[in-house]
Sequence to fold (139 residues):
Amino acid sequence: MKPPSGNVSSHFRPLLRFRKGYALAAAALLAIEILIALLVDDSFVRPYFGDTLAVALVYCALRATLALRPFPAAALALAVAVVIEFGQYLHVLRLVGLEGNAFARTVLGTGFEPRDFLAYAAGALAVLAIEAARTQPKA
Fold:
């Protein structure tokens, strides 16, 4: 079989790419999430704002380590959140024997809540809006 003409490597980007700014943003979001988990026990900030920030955290972690553009990274971060939420619906922690593990319960959650999907979507839309604002030419 004949190899494709032209420079094949120019058609592919490396998958891994470290971006310091996104790594710092992910670390800051992780710190905020930990503070919310430890200090906040309410009916809005912890469950909904925390879920919104969780999508932003995953987005920043993806952008910090992978050569993904904003939309695919936001879609993947949203997909991760949706999969975790459906895992809560299916009681995955109980199925794998981690229902007593405090870390797993904190990170993956324990209760399915359909309204969480709105918070996840808000997080994905927020990161895309921030990216769009960042890339706008300065007037």
Remarks:
- The CA atoms of residues 1 and 20 lie 42 Å apart.
